[in-house]
Structures are given as C-alpha cells and as structure tokens.
Amino acid sequence: MTFLAPFVSDRQSTKPTRERHNGDPGDASQTSAFQATGSTSLGLRRELIAAGLAFVGVVAGVGLMAGATVLGLWVQRHAAPAREQPLSILSAVPGPMLDSNAYLKGRTLFTMTCAVCHGAQGHGVAGLGKDITQSEFVASLSDGGLIAFLRRGRDANDPYNTTKVPMPPSGGNPQLTDQDMAHLVSFMRGIQDRRRVPADALQAPPVSVAQMVAAPSADEKAAALAAAGGDAELAEYIASGNKLYHSLCVACHGKGGVGMPNNGKALVDNEFVRSLDDDGLLAFVKQGRSPSDPKNTTGIQMPPKGGNPALSDDDILDIIAYLRTLQGGANGAATGGPASN
C-alpha cells in the first residue's frame, strides 16, 4: 500500500550499523556495550514504527467510515425521489381529444373559482384542496358524474373528505352555469391527461385578471356610486372590487362577504377589517395567513393573494374598497380598533 512507503523507507535508512573504533577490536566490554545500545535503539524504533502503522490503520479506518457516511448522505440527497404511482388512465389508451375552446374556458373558470384551494395547475394547496392531477376519484367519474359532484360539493364531515375542509357547492360560485361546469370538467380532464389537450391549447398564454373578470354592469356601477356617496372615482374602485371579489374570493368568504361555514370568515362588519387601513389590509392579503398563526381562529389556511398570484396591488385595493362598503359607517373606513380575526 502506497501510504506505508515512508515508513518502510525510514526503517531501511535507520537500520543500526556498527561504528569502527580505534580501540582494541578485542575489547569485549566495548563491543557488548555497543550491542546493548544498538539493540535498545533498534527495539525502540521498531516499537515506534509499529505504533505509526497502528495509527495509520486507525486513521485509514476512520477515513473509510467518514467517506462511507458522506457518500451515503450524497446518495440520499441526489438520488431521484420515489415517484408517485401514476394515474391508471395514463396506462390506457387516451380518451378523445378535448375541444381547445372548452379547455381554455375551463382553465379561466378554474383559476377564478377553484385555484384558491386546488392551485392554478390543480396540484393542490396544503391545508385546503387536494391534488386533482393525481386524483383517481376524479378520473373514475364520468363527465356527468363529475358535474353532479361539483354541484353538490363535499361537507367537512363526509367520511370521504380526508382534508376535513369543506368543498362548497359549485365551488362556492353559484353563478356557474351547466356550460361553465362542462368547461371546468374539460380542463380537469386535460390536467390529468395532457395527451388529450390540443397543442394550441397547451401553448396558450395564461389569462390575465382583466380577461377573467367581466366589466361591471350598469346596475353595479349605480350601486357602487351610491355606496361611494357620489364620488365617481371611488365608485369605480368599488365596482371593480365587487366583480373581483365575487369572481375570486367568493369560494371561501361567500357571496356578499357573509362567510362560509367551516371555511372563510364573514367579512361583513368584520372588526379585523375595520382595524387596518388600506395599506395594512393590502399587506395582509398579499401575505396570507397560515393555520399555525395564533390569530387564525378557523384553522383554515388563507393563501397569499387569496390563492390568485395574478392579482396586482391595484386589484387588491379595489377589493378592499368593496370590503369597506360591507363595514358600515363612512365607507367602512378603518377605525383603528383591536386587530382580531
């Protein structure tokens, strides 16, 4: 072994040799003394060499153990993670190609109504909705059966509800038509089996908030103007916020902000909303609130931006302007009261 070479070389070069003395070569006492000294020196060197070899062996053993540990950690860190069991439908012949228009309309509706709990791509949100892309339950239902399930929803006490978070009927958006439901199902089929999605639909850019939310109607504009006390600019914000709220927040907080049982709290006459000014509420909505937050009294997660990352600051401020109209008083302005939720 190469790491022993220095010790072997040292042993050869330090081998004791007898010196020539000018004294009488027959002097037995000198010869005996030299032999004794040389024997002692040789024994000491051999002991040192043996100790050195033992030390090298220990170091080598420790090095091998450390190397094995490091290698094991590297393998654990860099080894490919175990893959989830793929959906059974992916091992079968794919169903018929989906209609591009229906798929894209379903994507928009899903972003508006379902993404807050299930994520924009259907991969689920921790503490809220499950991963739809891997759901054998969804895959097992016919299109009609899936529409019926979405209409019915699932109560938190349903034994098949493993998250214990209620799924409200129609995803909390009762305005969804049967055609809307069919489009939603088309999108859900596509995120489970991309083989069925036409290439043009897969390559379509994501929709903007402006594309998702319809413009306020004349009646909605009139109601907003009345709520704003005749302030046209504020009325514009309120009308926009009303549409945004009822498109993106209604699933958890209910129509008109009345709340959803076992889900989002009521926002009507909400002390927490009144306690914060607009900048404070903006920061809160952008951050969200985790179930572990001691001020979270529902135990339900509120994701950042309500689960809609496309929302701009102006969009959120419009929603806040609408929420102020639900608080009573002068447009529900912040009162500076205790911040409890």
Structural class: mainly alpha
What is the name of the CATH topology of the domain at 88-207?
A: Cytochrome Bc1 Complex, Chain D, domain 2
- CATH architecture descriptor text of the domain at 88-207: Orthogonal Bundle
Got a strand count? 0
CATH superfamily of the domain at 88-207: Cytochrome c-like domain
Question: Could you describe the largest sheet, including whether it forms a barrel?
Answer: none
Give short descriptive properties of this protein.
341 residues, Cytochrome Bc1 Complex, Chain D, domain 2, 15 helices, 51% helix, globular, disordered N terminus, disordered C terminus
Characterization of this structure:
By secondary structure, the protein is mainly alpha-helical. Among the domains are: 88-207, Orthogonal Bundle (Cytochrome Bc1 Complex, Chain D, domain 2), CATH 1.10.760.10; 218-324, Cytochrome Bc1 Complex, Chain D, domain 2. The chain is built from 15 helices and no strands. Helix 11 (232-248) crosses helix 15 (313-324) and helix 14 (278-287) packs across helix 15 (313-324). The longest helix has 51 residues, at 28-78. The protein is globular and about 70 Å long. Residues 1-37, 66-83 and 334-341 have low confidence and may be disordered.
